[in-house]
Structure prediction request, 342 residues.
Amino acid sequence: MSEAPFLQACHNQRAIRVPVWFMRQAGRSLPEYRAMRGAGTILEAVRDPDLATTITLQPVRRYGVDAAILYSDIVVPVAAVGFGVDVAPGVGPVVASPFRSADDLGRLRPLDPDADCPWVGQTVRQLVTELGDVPLIGFAGAPFTVASYLIEGGPSRDLARSKALMLGDPQLWHALLDRLADLAIVALRSQVEAGVAAVQVFDSWAGTLSPGLYERHVLPASSRVFAGLADLDAPRIHFGVTTGELLPLLAKAGADVVGIDWRVPLDEARQRLGPDVAVQGNLDPAICLAPWPAVAEAVRDILARNDGRPGHIFNLGHGVLPQTDPDTLARIVELVHAEGRS
Ligand code: CP3
Prediction:
């Protein structure tokens, strides 16, 4: 398994091919997902290990990607400790009673994965058996991105309430982020114990912050998450969107691999990050909806910018859009495997 191209690239080593997987490879772009998914919310679906296993495997079987990602969501741990969060179809996480004051810290008790969300470990164990040589990626939300949902109560463009709390009550802010860091550490450690081969920390909305705010108010908690996983034998990926100006800080948090969206060309991102960290990305998911020659050109451009350096995991710069034709993703995998050098 340590020979798997995905894991070799995570370790910044040469691999027999450039590995590729897609964020949100499981989900609404796949007809077999829509057929299986049923009527409940995703938080109900993930509690069924057989269903979650099948959904996780669907894109692996269809695309021949080099890694699977657990079918779950970044709000599973906060939901499991009873904070009161749901995921609304087409919207994302929603919180009926958002985080407002120090009293709300009491709604974020420590996570006991075996008691609070035993289905996660069970799904991981089933998947490891089914996947054989294909590594399984576990994941959690970074403290900042999860906090933003708890504070805003739902998706938000500007995260104004979150920034107001960060700057208006830094002590409460850091207490909140510390609790969320603990939840992420416990959740990720239990996923690794159950058998995931690598973990990805999603700080999807970190790019809404200036480097100064990120460094002062987010980096300490995210660094704690990465440090809390350092003794495990699982590479750690750190991802966010519009993080071009934050890339060195995302690496500084302790990541082995930094995810890059499409706004910074891969060679420029490499320059900002230095040679010691691997990179994951960075095809614009919207380009997957263009005619194939344009897709192929964009894929080849990314491969050329990496220029054969080890430690490149091909991926999209953010999740697969629901309108994406699955055949396009299958062709991308084929092209990266045929032409990528590392
Ligand atoms: O292939 C995979 O990546 C599957 C696992 C996965 C899901 N969510 C399943 C999911 C992962 C890694 C996530 C992470 C996640 N969840 C993030 C970080 C990644 C990113 O996109 O930046 C975030 C911000 C969330 C919160 C969230 N959950 C959003 C914004 C949404 C979309 C709402 C929608 O319907 O458009 C969800 C729901 C969700 N999570 C779906 C899936 C497959 C789709 C809804 C469903 O089938 O009910």
User: Anything to note?
Assistant: The mean pLDDT is 97. The first strand starts at residue 68 and ends at 69. The two ends are 18 Å apart (CA to CA). The longest helix spans residues 170-194.
